[in-house]
Amino acid sequence: GQQVMQIPQYQHVQEGEDFTTYCNSSTTLSNIQWYKQRPGGHPVFLIQLVKSGEVKKQKRLTFQFGEAKKNSSLHITATQTTDVGTYFCAGHFGNQFYFGTGTSLTVIP
Amino acid sequence: GAVVSQHPSWVICKSGTSVKIECRSLDFQATTMFWYRQFPKQSLMLMATSNEGSKATYEQGVEKDKFLINHASLTLSTLTVTSAHPEDSSFYICSARDGLTPTDTQYFGPGTRLTVL
Predict the structure, then answer these.
(1) CB contact under 8 A, B103 and A99
(2) CA-CA 20 to 30 A from A22: which of A31, A76, A87, B104?
(3) Average pLDDT for residues A4-10, to the nearest whole number?
(4) Which tens digits make up the pLDDT trace of A32-87?
């Protein structure tokens, strides 16, 4: 079946350090979405990427969609304690929608 | 932004009883809603897609007779866990799609934490 894997599974960083999570799909995606889930909370939509090679920025967050539309990345510059949470990518395969395995980010003050 | 609510936010029930969870889109109409379950420290697993006015589409391995879904209006979908057992204990999250195309944004509810004793 379709698989959307993320690495790393866990990441601990010192506040101020950068952080990157990578999302890899077994097949080509129609689009990629990124969500953030705080501990005890629900996923919150961050962004959607549609075009091959697309790059979007939201303040300290940079999202990239691979040329082959099979991978994506989220990079956070100069992490803050408010960045703590689990980041999920999610992709459409036709009409199906699957979440990635998630990367849990811990920021040490 | 669009708001989706869920009720209840948490529920504890005895084994063998049924539990109904409501998912409402508060400020938009949602032709399609989705039900997910999430185990601790794991990703969200899609259980079923709920379409207003028609039968839900269940993912492989999800028992439709155990997880009854009703999408009676454009703003309300319900998930009933019938004859719940301890292994059904989980975090159940719904989402509502704001639009008619598969790639339109999904907005998530706050989730319902079910504990079956």
Answers:
(1) no
(2) B104
(3) 94
(4) 999 999 988 889 889 999 999 999 999 999 999 999 999 999 999 999 999 999 99
Nearest residue in chain B measured CA to CA from A31: B103
Measured in whole angstroms, the distance separating CA A104 from the mean position of its chain's CA atoms is 10
3-state secondary structure labels for all residues of chain B? CCCEEEECCEEEECCCCCEEEEEEECCCCCCEEEEEEECCCCCEEEEEEEECCCCCEECCCCCCCCEEEEEEECCEEEEEECCCCHHHCEEEEEEEECCCCCCCCEEECCCEEEEEC
Structure confidence at residue B1 (pLDDT): 66
**Which residue from A33, A43, A94 is facing B44, i.e. has the nearest CB?**
A43
Residue of B nearest to A10 (CA): B41
Mark yes or no for CB contact A97/B102 under 8 Å.
Answer: yes
pLDDT digits (tens, 9 = 90+) for B51-92: 888 889 998 899 999 999 999 899 999 999 999 999 999 999
* Cβ separation A99–B43 shorter than 8 A: yes
Q: Which of A98, A12, A13, A85 is nearest to A43 (CA)?
A: A85
Give the A window 13-52 contacts with B, CB below 8 Å: 30-31, 33, 35, 41-45, 48, 50
